[in-house]
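User:
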Amino acid sequence: MKDLILFYSKGANPIWNEPKQPYTPEDEIKLFPKKEANGRRYTTIPLHAPGETTNGATSQPFLGIAPPPGRHWRTDVSTLEEWNNNGLIEWSDNGNPRKKIYLDEQEGKRIQDIWELKDPQYPVYPTEKNEQLLDLIVKTSSLSESIVLDPFCGSGTTLVAAKKNNRQWIGIDQSDEAIRITAQRLQSSESDLFLANMTNFQIITT
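Assistant: Predicted structure:
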């Protein structure tokens, strides 16, 4: 009913790009309930954070207002003043400032631990995986121009995801059928993975 995906790193500074997914229409209304006159959706967050500082850039008064007791401003006062001048701070009726966060500036919401993705119902290869799953894994754990290795590439889903995300890739499989299907998928991919001469695509058999 489920598989577990384990993440390993060889070094102390692993590549990890926080996985995001688009907001649903319901999310947009719930998480960004406010609208500006032009229809732009937003929400607001406090300008202060837990922890009191003394004689620091985040403990100074902002337009005559000090941080609440036991808290400090999230950034220095000069940045707060810049935000305010640019209309990025909303003031409540009782004079409480809050930072505006706009929907159209967000990448999406964080993906949680459970990924509800299913393998293809009619696979062209027995172990074929969901392409969205591999796309998410590649984007999360590699950077542009990273090398993605799949030593059991099967139907080539990982390689397609790697190429779509501008990664270099190496795929290996001992099955002639797997190699045939992988090459076919790479050649027929809707994204322009290769030019007509396919100069960067090689199949090596032994």
